[in-house]
UniProtKB/TrEMBL annotation:
Residues 118-152 form a coiled coil. It comes from Cytobacillus depressus. InterPro entries: AAA+_ATPase, AAA_lid_NorR, Homeodomain-like_sf, HTH_TyrR, P-loop_NTPase, PAS-like_dom_sf, PAS_fold, Sigma_54_int. SUPFAM superfamilies: Homeodomain-like, P-loop containing nucleoside triphosphate hydrolases, PYP-like sensor domain (PAS domain). Keywords: Aromatic hydrocarbons catabolism, ATP-binding, Coiled coil, Nucleotide-binding. The keyword Coiled coil applies. This is HTH-type transcriptional regulatory protein TyrR.
């Protein structure tokens, strides 16, 4: 039926049908001369008469590149590629040939479809996507700044504080595992939450699990959950684990070094392929969770002891970050004191200020408990102090700095003022040097010259021991 209809159509009618197509159609001889083009080709190129021109010459003149007819002749096969016109338009062009009775190329037929609109739309979409990403980042920053009005562990002027802040922004959207290390109280939890706020997961759950606070027998069920009737004493309806709760969000595994050895392989499996099994269930579950681990112990030592898997350590340690203790970034102490004073004044409706003596004393305090100790002390002082100005005598009686002040006052009753002052200076020298292990750093921290420190070491008969500590000769 189809063949009979085509036989009834004459050549002119076929050309009229092809002319209705909106894509350019070319028919060329093998020497490149144009025999016929449809109306769409004229409309698209707008360069006058095309029939009789040579496509090879047109290619040399830069009207388009490459010539599909040339490629078909060279390769003697069907060709499809992108052609660029003199107006920098992109056209997807396909070409094939018709053979003569000897099997040689006689005619080349090419068909084009304009790509520029699609390319331009793609570019516009890319621009819009880029703008949206920028807006999303700015919104995250605004949310973070708002939250920081209530809580911020990284107020400070030290290089370490700036590095921590910049590092959080840099790794927030790198969706990989992070290992935070540092002493107790340096703010590992706050840093993990900061990363979560800056990431694309900020509108999803942030779950905090303290591995050291949960009995070993319960931590697996807390983490992975369990099915109904999984064990005696289990909830009759089963339990959803924290991994499922944190789906699409962030899970902080605090004190990761305390996780039981038998559970570490299951955690490693989840880190590798995001799959796990609930207790009492054979079904494999999936969850898209970003893991941030934190510890105040040396995990490599745990690996050597055999209590922590080496493969789990390396899987957690993809992006390591150590948070320095407060005593190593003393420039942050005063800003933090002022921050928490303001925070707790606002919380308890007070208007306290800190005396210079107290500020100086707290600046030189060692802060073994780091930021957490500082925060707790400031809250206590704001609550318990009566007068508008908080001074050294307002410190709790069990606070180490207060005890040292009382000892010095007792010594003052027994010795003369010059001897008393020498004792204080000697004590400060020993303490500061043993913190810095350098006479130059000691001088810088105390605001004096290095030669002054050397003279004082000789005056008080102090020497550097084999253990690199300052001791009396």
């Amino acid at each position: 039926m189809t063949a009979r209809i085509l036989q009834q159509l004459n050549g002119q009618m076929l050309l009229k049908i092809i002319n209705t197509l909106k894509d350019p159609i070319w028919i060329n001889e093998k020497n490149g001369n144009v025999l016929w083009v449809n109306q769409a080709a004229y409309d698209y190129f707008s360069i006058g008469e095309l029939v009789g021109k040579n496509v090879f010459e047109m290619e040399k003149q830069g009207l388009f590149s490459p010539s599909i007819a040339r490629l078909v002749i060279e390769q003697k096969q069907f060709v499809s590629t992108t052609q660029i016109t003199q107006n920098n338009d992109h056209v997807l062009v396909s070409g094939d040939y018709i053979q003569d009775e000897n099997g040689e190329i006689q005619y080349i037929v090419t068909h084009g479809r304009q790509l520029s609109p699609a390319i331009n739309q793609t570019k516009e979409l890319e621009k819009i996507e880029s703008i949206l990403q920028l807006y999303k980042q700015q919104i995250r920053q605004l949310i973070l700044q708002k939250n920081q009005q209530d809580e911020d562990f990284y107020v400070g002027k030290s290089k370490a504080a700036h590095y921590i802040s910049e590092w959080a922004q840099k790794i927030a959207d790198i969706d990989t595992t992070i290992l935070l290390t540092g002493e107790t109280g340096v703010g590992k939890t706050a840093f993990a939450y900061r990363i979560h706020q800056l990431s694309s997961r900020n509108n999803k759950p942030f779950i905090h699990l303290d591995c050291s606070a949960i009995p070993e027998s319960l931590i697996e069920s807390e983490l992975f959950g369990y099915k109904k009737g999984a064990f005696t004493g289990a909830n009759a309806n089963g339990k959803i684990g924290l991994i499922a709760t944190a789906d699409q969000g962030t899970l902080l595994l605090d004190e990761i070094g305390e996780i039981p050895l038998h559970l570490q392989s299951k955690l490693l499996q989840f880190l590798q392929n995001k799959t796990y099994r609930m207790i009492g269930d054979n079904k494999v579950q999936q969850a898209d969770v970003r893991i941030i681990a934190a510890t105040n112990v040396n995990l490599m030592e745990r690996v050597k002891e055999g209590t922590f898997r080496k493969d789990l350590f390396y899987r957690l340690n993809v992006v390591p970050m150590n948070i320095a203790p407060l005593r190593e970034r003393k420039e942050d102490i005063i800003p933090l004191l002022n921050f928490y004073l303001s925070k707790f004044n606002k919380k308890y409706g007070r208007q306290h200020t800190l005396s210079k003596n107290l500020m100086d004393a707290l600046y030189n305090y060692r802060w073994e408990g780091n930021i957490r100790e500082l925060e707790n002390l400031m809250e206590r002082l704001v609550i318990t102090s009566d007068g508008p100005k908080i001074d050294i005598n307002n410190l709790p009686s069990d606070f180490p700095l207060q005890q040292s002040q009382q000892i010095l006052l007792q010594n003052l009753e027994e010795v003369s003022l010059p001897i008393y002052l020498d004792q204080i200076e000697k004590s400060i020298l020993i303490k500061t040097y043993n913190e810095t292990n350098s006479t130059w750093k000691t001088a810088k921290q105390l605001g004096v010259s290095q030669s002054y420190i050397i003279r004082r070491l000789k005056k008080y008969n102090l020497k550097i021991s084999d253990a690199k500590e300052l001791v009396e000769e």
